[in-house]
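Intended use. Records such as the cysteine-S-conjugate beta-lyase entry shown here are meant for training and evaluating sequence-to-structure methods. They are not intended to support clinical decisions.
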Amino acid sequence: MSRPAAFGPTDALFDDLDLDELRRRPGVKWERVDPDVLPAWVADMDFAVPPVVADAIEHTVRRGDLGYPSWQDGSPLRTAFADRMHERYGWTVSADAVREHTDLLQALQFVLHLATNPGDAVAVQTPNYPPFLATLETMGRRGVSSPWTRTTGGWTPDIAGLADAVVAHDCRVLLLVNPHNPTGRVLTRDELTEIAAIARRHDLLVFSDEIHAELTYEPHRHIPFASLHEDAAARTVTLTSATKSFNLAGLRCAVAHYGSEQLLALRDAQPPDLYGTVSTLGVAGTLAAWRHGAEWQDRLLRVLDRNRRRVAEALASFTGDDRCPMPEATYLYWFEADVLGVGDKPVDEVLARARVLLDGGAGFGPDGQRYLRLNFATSAPLLEEILTRLASLARR
């Protein structure tokens, strides 16, 4: 495919993707679609692994370092996380309060199992990440929805509504996703401070999923929830990973910072391997990304910023207005299905009529039924083809 005229400068590292090679990948994104379908659904980037990560993993394998790791005091990720939080956000944390998990979902399920009981209510701002919502249902926790509000200025959290929901349903936990998936909103310090006040008044345990923090676009700034003040830190489990910001989902490696000493002690009292552990390769890849991946990530952010602007331009051309605001973070674009003129099953209809697989619908919560989520972390030519196919629906 040639470079689309609608795009700005391209970057060969990210834009020279071979479609046939992508279709040969065994991962879920490309393996589950027919040969004529372009997938833009699951939150995997199409880009190659950062060279520094590939080199670190290869070096680990070639030197035969696949025996049992000598991590008596925990993996090096604990110190690496503490260093990264201080360098990027000015948040000083103790590495002693950091623990490894296979991924954020596993960490959430683990702590829910320890800290809550079936029937307990968990407040969650919707729309939201479908596996989180499915986890609450499967574990018998009552998910209490606090819908975001769509305004002329973009997506806005209904913080007063969140407070009302916490009281009405006697919530014990708040599941906070910031930057938000799927809307891409980055909560401001004022908004986070209001949410922290709710958590304090009602003694909520806060799960803060911050996995998309490093994919935040200027002029927006990510603020770790636990960095607000001492009370916020003491009631928060902060979850993050290098997997989204460096495209390493298959490494199954994440970390959690436990602000509550009591919860950390309860966690450490469990059998050490009952809930899984991280691999040597996952740790090696994450360390390489965090310590040596800055140049790759800077280039990635420029490409993603360009792509989100192109999607915004295309959606505005479909509607004649700006009702589909750009995400402030992530590589996921949340927009109204009505923009494409599709019916009650928008994902199925876009797939059938345009041969593009998006995500969206009721899996994101009761207020997600008429919305679609487009993953724009792909090359300029592939994204342009996706938008061209969607434009054919909008014109109809």
